[in-house]
UniProtKB/TrEMBL annotation:
Gene3D superfamilies: NAD(P)-binding Rossmann-like Domain
Keyword Oxidoreductase: yes
Record function comment: Catalyzes the reduction of dihydromonapterin to tetrahydromonapterin. Also has lower activity with dihydrofolate.
Species in which this protein is naturally found: Pseudomonas pudica
UniProt superkingdom: Bacteria
Protein name in the entry: Dihydromonapterin reductase
Keyword NADP: yes
């Protein structure tokens, strides 16, 4: 039973002329997400600095871009406007988990804040051309509690999280804008076992989940007809561990 402004399921079906832009899809979580969406029939435009053979799929277009650079972002914006009728979704996944320092802070600001801000503003017209459009910001659960070891990373992810609220209001009702706040997903390759064990024990669910929880959440949000301005936490209950009760 569909009423009011509800959309029919057929509108969430993959539309080959309205791709999903996934930033940072050359490895790990972003790559797994891009391949999952491509296998579901979506056209995926993947924007990263490197082009990877692992991302080769008939439905994936790899667009090489350093999203810290406005000129590269503009080239991506122009490409999308020149080649597609609309844009089904933008998933801002590109990120750098850098140590603290002024240069690294500037880099993370450019990637986590400036790039999503620029792309959301410049691509709003393409998103508005499809019935069901989404913007998803991949934030971090440290956005809301800080991180003494990654102050700049957490601060820039917090800004990314805040922009969910502003763009959700700006683009309603045609474009839904939501944030995903992961805890642990995939540890860095080659990390030491001590760090791994310490990290796993920070959550109630003491295991390394991989890309799955994020992919499931993206699929839910793409299908949702009543979610915007939401922040979906997927952290294994980390916020409840070792509380001062
Ligand atoms: N892994 C985890 O446990 C957690 C991850 N997250 C978040 O989930 C998302 C995915 O995480 P994960 O897969 O580990 O991330 P990675 O750091 O492994 O990959 C980040 C991606 O961003 C791309 N990227 C980096 N810099 C740029 C740039 N200047 N321009 C364009 N693309 C760039 C990289 O591609 P390339 O180098 O080719 O440019 C890569 O594809 C991220 O947003 C992350 O912050 C949040 C919490 C936990
Ligand atoms: N861009 C990235 N962001 C984050 C990463 C990563 O590898 N790349 N990793 C983490 C950690 O796994 C953290 O969640 C647990 O130590 C956080 N963000």
């Amino acid at each position: 039973m569909l009423g009011g402004n509800q959309r029919t399921d057929k509108l969430t079906a993959p539309n080959m002329n309205s791709p999903i832009l996934v930033t940072g899809a050359s490895q790990r979580v972003g790559l797994a997400l891009a391949l999952e969406l491509a296998q579901a029939g979506h056209t995926v435009v993947s924007a990263s600095r490197s082009v990877q053979p692992q991302a080769a799929h008939p439905n994936i277009v790899q667009f090489q871009a350093d999203l810290c650079q406005a000129t590269d972002r503009q080239a991506l914006i122009d490409y999308l406007h020149n080649h597609y009728d609309g844009l089904r979704a933008i998933i801002h996944n590109a990120s750098l988990w850098l140590d603290d320092g002024l240069d690294n802070l500037e880099t993370m600001f450019r990637l986590h804040v400036e790039a999503p801000y620029h792309l959301n503003l410049a691509l709003g017209d393409l998103l508005a051309k499809v019935e069901k459009a989404d913007i998803i910001h991949i934030c971090d659960e440290t956005s809301s509690r800080g991180s003494k070891s990654h102050i700049g990373y957490a601060a820039t992810k917090a800004a990314l999280q805040n922009m969910v609220l502003s763009f959700a209001e700006k683009y309603a009702p045609k474009v839904h804008v939501n944030g995903i706040l992961p805890g642990l997903l995939i540890l860095k390759e080659g990390g030491d076992e001590t760090y791994r064990q310490q990290t796993l024990k920070k959550a109630l669910l003491e295991f390394e989940p991989g890309a799955g929880p994020l992919i499931e959440t993206v699929k839910y949000l793409l299908a949702s007809q009543y979610s915007t301005g939401s922040q979906v936490v997927i952290n294994g209950g980390r916020h409840l561990k070792n509380r001062m009760t």
